[in-house]
Structures are given as structure tokens and as C-alpha cells.
User: Fold this.
Amino acid sequence: HFGTIFQFNGEPHSYTRFNLTQNMEGDNSQVEMKLSSEVDEEVGGNGVGDHLSHNSNGKPYMVQKLKRTPKSLCFMAAVTLLIFIIGFLVGYTAHRRKETSPVCSASVLPFERAVAPETGAAPLMDWDKVKSLLNQRLTAAKIETAFSEFSKPSHRAGSPEDDYLGNKVLQRFKDYGMNTWNDEHFVKVQDPPASGSNRIIYKNDPEERPKGFLSYSGNGSVKGAALYACYGQESDFRLLRDKNINMNGRVMLVRAGKISFAEKVANAAKVNASAVLIYPDPADYSIGETTDLYGHVHLGSGDPYTPGFPSFNHTQFPPVESSGLPKIPAQTITSAMATKILWKLGGQSLPEGWEGFHKLGNENDTISVEVNNFLTEKKINNVFGVVKGLVDADRYVVIGAQRDAWGPGFAASTVGTSVLVELARSVSDMVEHDGFKPRRSIVFASWSAGEYGSVGATEWLEGYLSSLGMKAFSYINLDGIVTGTHLAASPLMHTLIEKALNEFILWGFILFCYSLEPMQMDNTAYPFLAFSGIPSMSFRFTSGRSSYQYLGTLLDTQEKLNAATSSQVPQLAAAAGRFAGSIALRLVHDHLLQMNLRKYDKVIRFNVAKINAKIKAVQRVSRALSSWLISASGSYGRASRSLETDVQNSNLDDIETCRIINDRIMSVERNFLSPYISPREIPFRHILMGTGSHTLQALSNHLDALKADNPEADADLFRHQFALATWTLQGCANSLAGDIWSLDNEI
Assistant:
């Protein structure tokens, strides 16, 4: 029964009772109505309330027949018309509201499109309000206070100081009301000699004993002729080969910079060098001629003695080593040590374009190198806290920062850890006090053993690879965020990053961080992207155009960073934290993930066009191969456009619909990992961003070798690699297409 009172001029006009129940005699067509004004006349009642308890003839009101007088018929018609008009207006208003409700933004749609809040879902807070709340909560003053709390003169991985800082981070997460946990690993790392030292001797000069070292170097003593190899890049060694210089058994002198220490050593090993000495050239570094460098030379990430699986306690595996461990000794030397050697070298002049006035070195310029690093096992702890989402709590973005350092590590770890903790506090406060309701979760992670090659982060990825690949949709790296001009990310995130940077410009921040660049292997975000298939990003801001030069030294202090940034460290850190926070919050705020699938379409087409052009120039490879790769590339493009269409035609008010679409978006990066290679042998399986023979770049390089008739080139091997890369790309397109009946089976 539904009762309605119509009121005109402030007075009740009539009360109409409707009965929509089935007539007791079985007549489904009869709907009877009794106007309260007439009932009152019949029973002598005094108003709406009286007729609820009086009935003159004893029959229920719902079965009393309405008297069909002209007056009553006119009144019935008027009431019916009025009800129709009201119903029409209500329906029209509801329909218009649905059309104009803010819709979630997604990369596959224009950024400003949004979806109306669905029943049972977290209501959308206005995005401008979310940004404003973050700016209010995350301040330079708060971060500056955190600097003093998380600073230590020394906190090498696994040390008591590292554990102390980890417990402090954990307690802060608990104070914010977050769910917390820690992840314990027992990892093998290489430290400098416990007694004695590493040594170098040039000819008959006094021996030098550098204090710096390179973890995971090959140990032993070697003697060979010195050879200057610039930055130790592959192109540098090609120039030396073009000058017909014998590189076999040589001790390479290379400058720090351009590429990682591990890549320099790996490149030297390829040309059969006997050892590598790395130094900071004064043209690149103004850190003092006696400043030592620290780092590692594992061409990979994580514990190299448990490649592809985690270093949990008491795990028993047969002896195994990462394929990225070098066999030759490698050692850092100071600028002063290097200068003494360089100015005494003989041999040929430097190739054109190489800086310097010294020679390359000849067979008489002998150097003895002795490395005595020792392998030790350390217990490390990763620390986590989570702000849970209200709709898809099991889908999360991870924000992480390295906690350990070789020395003070103020820029390397203290700033990132402070921003991590303050960002966690800010988001927690927004949820608890400001009414912000994230749809998905945010995991805050404090890593240990980052200086040894992202060991803590990689061990976590290896331990939970299957679940993380399905549920973590992004990683944001906070390491070294105020030390230079750097921005690297998965192409899926480029549009979101560009939008966030534009917003920062509008807010008045002047940040020298312009171009997107390839992500390097020594970046903690790299294993998330290339090993686990999780879209990732890393960035660095600075107040000037020059980069901070004290990373990897014992002079990485607050005073040095203040001098490099005109004492603007808290302000820069707050800006960097807001930038990272805005990206994370956007990913957990909107109904659909802002991942631009079209960006990878461009990357794929660029690589395919390059490979196809080279295939045409190689006689030993059939041109028919081109059609396979072109078809797979086209399949990805069609699948990405199909998803856009699916989004436009879907009811995004529905939670399950959004979840299905988001899962399809999340599968893209993961499905670029080649399923045909072992993560133990080649951990970075991404065919576009990884390293190894399975990548599209490796195919391009192999074609160059075939064209040049390089004896190491193999046409049959190329066709095998080509087929696997092509099907990996097609498999990604198939997964993106969604349902099995939507697949493109052109290949």
C-alpha cells in the first residue's frame, strides 16, 4: 500500500490509497482506489487518521467500490494526470543526473571522464579537493622534522642502525593506524676486506689502497697492461677495436658515469679484459680528488646467489650464481690515483670525441690489481604499511624507498624514507579525518640492501611474484628524488605523469625534470617493470640544472645536499612527495586505472618498423618474417582500441565491470614478459624494456650482426628468437582482447 497526500495552499486536499495486491477472487486486472474525502463522508470521520480505524460497512477499504459519480471521475482523472506528470519529471531528472554525473577517468578515455558512484562503492571525492588535501597535509616543515628522525651517520644494510631505522618506520606506520608487517630475508653480500685491503700498483710506483669498493667483484690478483676505455660503453670498446687495439688481458681504466658500474664491467669482460678500474673524472665530478666511490657490479638485482627465488631463512638450494656476476676483479679508485696513471700512459692518441690529453696506454703500462672482498650473509628487513581501499582492497599501488646507505646517505636514503613516512601519514589523515575514500589500496614499503643492487625489493618480488603480478598495478620509486633531472617510467604511465607535471607547473613549482628517458638497471623501479611486469616509475627533481654528485660516496650528507640545492631540500622533498602522492592517489581514486595503452602501441610499431627495415637488407633472412611481426603488432593495436570501445559501451556504475576492465589493463605489462625463458638465467624478461636475446632490441642487434657477416651471428637462432618474440607480443594482444571469443587469430 502506498499513501500520498496532495497539498494545495497549505491544506491537505485528499488522501489516496492504492492497493497493488492481487484480488482475493483471482481477478488480476482490478486495482481499486478509495479517496479519503469520500470515505470520511461515508463513515462520518473527521480526517485522514480517523478512517484508519473506522469502517461503516465492515469491509476492508481496499475492496470497497468507488462510487462512479461525475465528480469522482473528474477527480480521478486529475489525480491520475498529476501522478503521471510527477513520475515523468522524476524519471527525466534521474536520467539527466546519470548522464551528467562525473565519470571516472581512464587512460583509454579522455582524462576528465568519470563514472557515477555505484551502489555500495566508495563515493568519489572531487579530484581538486583530493589534491588540495594532500598539499595541506604534506608540508616542507613536517618533512624537515622527519629528516632529523631518520638520519644516521652510517646505516649499511643489515647493521644495527639499519634495523633501528626499520623499526622506527614500522612504529610510525602503526601510529597512523595502518596495517603493518615486515619481510625478513637472509642475503649474501660482498663487503670490503675485514682485514687488509684491496690494492693497485702501477709499474714500480708505490701501491695504492683505495677505501672504496665494488660489491660482487671477482676476487684475486691480476696483472695486465693499462688501457683507457672512456666510459666503458659498448660503443667505446668498438672504437678501440676499430683502432686495431688488442684488448685481451688489459686492465681497463674507465670513467664513472653514463652507465652503471655493472654494465662497465660486463662490457669489459666481453672483450676479455683482465680487470676494471673505475674513477670519477674531474670533468664529470667535482667531489674532490681523494673521494672514494662505492657500489656493486652485479648485472642484475637482488641476491645473486639465489637468482629467481627469494632468500628466505633455511631455504636449501643447490649452489647457484646469477649469470650477471662478473668473473674479473673490479675496483674503484680516486680521481688522484687515476690522474697519476693516466698522465704516464703511452700508446695511441685518444679517438676523436674523447676528452683528455693523455694516451690510451700501451703494452708496457702494466698495472697489478688485487681484490680481497669477502662474502657474508646478512639478515635484512623490509617494512610495510598499507592504507586499504574500500572497493578493490586487493589491488594496490606500491610506493617504496631505500633505507640503507654506504655512509650517511642523506640524499640516497634519508630524504626518500622521510617522504615515504610523511606521505603515509598524509594519506592516512586524509582517510581518517577528511573523508577521502580510496577505491584501491596503497602499500608503503621501506627497503633494505638497496645499495647492493635493490636486494630487498627484488627478494620481495621473487617471494611473491605470482600474486604481485596479478594484484600490484604500479610501483613509484622515491630513491634520490631531489638529486637531479631524471624521469623514467613504463609507457603505460607516461600520460598520467605528463598530466601530473602540468598540474605542478600550474601550482607554481619550477622543477627541472623534463624528458622521459629509458629506465636503467640500477634503478629500484627496474625489477618491478622488467622482472615482475608491474608498471613503474622513478623520478628526480632539483632546483638547478646540474645533478647531485655525492651519491655512492661517504660525503652524501645534509650539508652537501643543502649546498647543491640552495638549502631548498625540504621544499623540494615536499614537492616531490606531492608529485608522487598525486599519481598514487589518482590511481586509487578513479574507477578505472589511468594507463594509456596507446603509448605501448607506438613503442611496438617503432620497434617493428626498425626490425622490418633491417630484415629487407639481410639476404639470409626471409622477408616473409616481416608479415608475422606486423600482424602481431596490429593485433595489439586493435586490442587496445577494442578495449576503448568496451569501456565506452559498458556500464561503469557497476563495480564488477570496472574490475574486469582494470584487470585487462593490468595484464598488459605482465604479458610483455617472455614465457619462453627462465627468470634464473635471464631475470628481466620484458621483451620491450628487458635485457637479453628475447627482446625486440636484441632482434634488431642480431640483424645488424647478420648484415655484417659477424661469425657469431646465426640465422637459424635469429628465426627461433623472432618466433618467440612475435608470439609473446601476440599473446599480450590476446590477453588484452579479453574473452576467448574476442581473440584475433590472424597468426
Q: What stands out?
A: The mean pLDDT is 85. The two ends are 63 Å apart (CA to CA). DSSP finds 20 helices and 18 strands in the chain. The first helix runs from residue 36 to 43.
